[in-house]
Amino acid sequence: MDPTLPKMPLNDAETMIHSYLRHGLAPGGHRDDRLDHTDGIGCGAIDGLDTVVTVMTDPDLVDDHKRLVRTLMGASFDRDNYLRVLGAALMLRAREDTYFADRGEILDLLDRLAP
Predict the structure, then answer these.
(1) CA–CA distance, 89 with 81 (Å, rounded to integer)
(2) What is the pLDDT at residue 4?
(3) Which whole-number Å values give the CA distances from 37 to 7, 10, 43, 85, in the listed order?
(4) What is the pLDDT of residues 7-35, one digit of tens each?
(5) Mutual orientation of helices 104-113 and 8-22 as an angle, nearest 10°?
(6) How many contiguous H segments (helices) and E segments (strands) does the chain have?
(7) Rounded to an integer, what distance in angstroms lies between the CA atom of residue 109 and that of residue 17?
(8) SS3 state at 101
């Protein structure tokens, strides 16, 4: 990863953590020290985010994803919001080589801001 680039996932994580705390919610995460993790930290929510983004933006699966989200959200489903989220996921996917690097630092940030 280019050290001159901003660490976007950390910026996003910090924004999310502050938002959770402002609303009285307790964000969490974990490291799995029991297993050998060469590519991650053992927290599926952090380690697996790139897989989630890849699947939800896969052209062969996007209709199924939209149908699932619509089913789960019912009357709260908003097509414009859905498309905004999908567009943001596409942006993340385009930057996945740098965006998803050094994910363990997110837990360090979480430990500092919301122990």
Answers:
(1) 12
(2) 46
(3) 22, 20, 10, 30
(4) 567 788 888 899 999 999 988 777 766 65
(5) 30
(6) 7, 0
(7) 9
(8) coil
Interior angle at CA 86, CA 83 and CA 89, nearest 5: 155
Q: How many CB atoms are located within 10 Å of the residue 83 CB?
A: 11
Of 20, 70, 73, 27, the residue nearest 46 (C-alpha): 27
CB 98 within 8 A of CB 3: no
Q: Is 104 exposed, middle or buried (0-12, 13-18, 19+ CB in 10 A)?
A: middle
Buried b (16+ CB within 10 A) or exposed e, 25-53: eeeebeeeeeeeeeebbbbeebbebbeeb
